[in-house]
Design a protein that fits this description.
Oligomer: heterodimer
Strand order of the largest sheet of chain A: 9-2-11-10
Order of helices and strands of chain A: HEEHEHHEHEEHEEHHEHEE
Number of domains of chain A: 1
Order of helices and strands of chain B: HHHEEHH
Structural class of chain B: mainly alpha
Bound molecules: iron/sulfur cluster
Number of helices of chain A: 9
Strand content of chain B: under 5%
Strand content of chain A: 15-25%
Largest interface: A-B, 30 and 35 residues
Largest sheet of chain B: 2 strands, antiparallel
Number of strands of chain B: 2
CATH class of chain A: Alpha Beta
Radius of gyration of chain B: 23 Å
Radius of gyration of chain A: 25 Å
Number of strands of chain A: 11
Helix content of chain B: 40-55%
Shape of chain A: elongated
């Protein structure tokens, strides 16, 4: 009895399919170690919606603000290129007129007109940067933090165009030689990626408050906007607050207390 | 054959050029990579094992690193519990490089052999604070 052509083809194809299937399954199973799992650190601070309140009355001088910026930039290995063209900043400063355009007028009190307000990524509830990022390198976490995965950033800078707050900077050059003192516990960035404030997610995960909050002497209040008993909610409930460019609908999570002079609780 | 001699000479020349890399390297096998694991930190360990078995790490470390990255960055999961139930911080600086403080003699040996160029060190610092 000889093997018919039809039977030969059938047998051949079944064998090939079997081998292919086994290889695919093998690859699939080996993809993860059996019985391993990933957990959240027990020390981690948790929230449904992280938010920040900046009490501008408590920031009496430019040094107060600079101390916070330095703390942030030291913690996160932010380079200093020494020129504004290449500048990278996670936290910066703006005048009232530039931070809150449309809310200025010609007769603003001198204190407010001259004051430099700290500005940073607003961790918007409706972030424009996330919508435009083609690689999901920028994404919004369930706790409200707009985070970045620098591994995925292709440097297209769509996010910089989309963000109306100037919160993002681009690494035109290798930042490493321009970091005065490298914090070995946090990575640096590389040429060709965008970077911005991460609400100190790496510190929250270890149970620590953000670096700027720690350096602010109480001028910055950080907490869960979804928790009515949190300090941010209590401060917002008892003080008049504004946000940057609310008309754009991105719903910033950074609030500013302006004027009034009275200190919060 | 019209201009047969030239064609054959040309073909021979081409064959020589194409085979050149093989001919030159005949008998010169590249040394087998030998990654070094005798760093001071590893020597102090009572049981000298990685987060998973050496066999698993050899074949799957890249998948594991991808899982670690996504777990830590996207889901805020920063603790890895291995198949033996031991836990480790998910961190290149504070887990991997704490032991493998010699990436030049460890990571690079195999990667160079396989002509793979990892760019981890472009951003990640070699050796965080020992915790
Ligand atoms: S401030 Fe800009 S970078 Fe930050 S979340 Fe909003 S749109 Fe994105
Ligand atoms: S520059 Fe990077 S983060 Fe920004 S949109 Fe492009 S890929 Fe996304």
């Amino acid at each position: 009895m000889s093997v018919t052509r039809r039977r030969f083809l059938k047998l051949g194809l079944t064998t090939l399919a079997g081998i292919g299937g086994a290889m695919a399954l093998d690859g699939f199973w080996r993809g993860s170690a059996e019985a391993s799992e990933v957990l959240t650190d027990q020390k981690a601070l948790k929230a449904k919606h992280w938010a920040m309140v900046i009490d501008s009355d408590r920031l009496k001088s430019a040094e107060n603000v600079q101390r916070m910026i330095d703390a942030c930039h030291r913690t996160h290995n932010v380079p200093d290129f020494g020129n504004s063209k290449d500048e990278i900043k996670w936290m910066g400063t703006e005048t009232y007129e530039h931070a809150f355009p449309g809310q200025e007028n010609g007769y603003l009190n001198e204190g407010i007109k001259e004051k430099l307000f700290p500005v940073l990524c607003n961790h918007c509830e409706n972030p424009a940067c996330v919508r435009v990022c083609p690689t999901q390198a920028t994404f919004k976490r369930p706790d409200g933090i707009v985070a970045m995965d620098y591994h995925r950033c292709i440097g297209c800078r769509f996010c910089m165009a989309a963000c109306a707050f100037g919160a993002r900077s681009f690494n035109f050059r290798d930042p490493r030689p321009f970091i005065k003192q490298v914090n070995p516990d946090f990575p640096t960035r590389t040429k060709g990626v965008v970077e911005k404030c991460n609400f100190c997610v790496e510190r929250l995960e270890k149970g620590l408050p953000p670096a700027c909050v720690e350096a602010s002497n109480g001028a910055l209040i950080f907490g869960d906007l979804d928790d009515p008993n949190s300090e941010v909610r209590q401060v917002l409930a008892t003080h008049y607050s504004i946000r940057r460019k609310p008309e754009l609908g991105t719903e910033p999570s950074v609030y500013y207390l302006i004027g009034g002079g009275e200190e919060h609780a | 054959m019209y201009k047969g001699g030239r064609i054959i000479a040309g073909l021979l020349l081409f064959a020589c050029l194409a085979l050149m890399p093989f001919l030159i390297n005949i008998g010169k096998a590249a040394a087998k990579p030998s990654p070094q694991v005798n760093t001071p930190f590893i020597q102090q360990l009572t049981t000298q094992t990685c987060v998973e078995s050496a066999a698993f790490m050899k074949t799957e470390h890249m998948q594991l690193l991808n899982q670690w990255r996504d777990a830590a960055l996207r889901d805020g999961k920063t603790v890895y519990v291995n198949s033996q139930g031991q836990s480790f911080p998910i961190s290149l600086e504070n887990s991997c490089l704490k032991c493998h403080s010699n990436p030049q003699q460890f990571c690079n040996t195999c990667h160079t052999y396989a002509a793979v160029k990892p760019y981890c060190w472009d951003c990640h610092n070699q050796g965080g604070t020992r915790q």
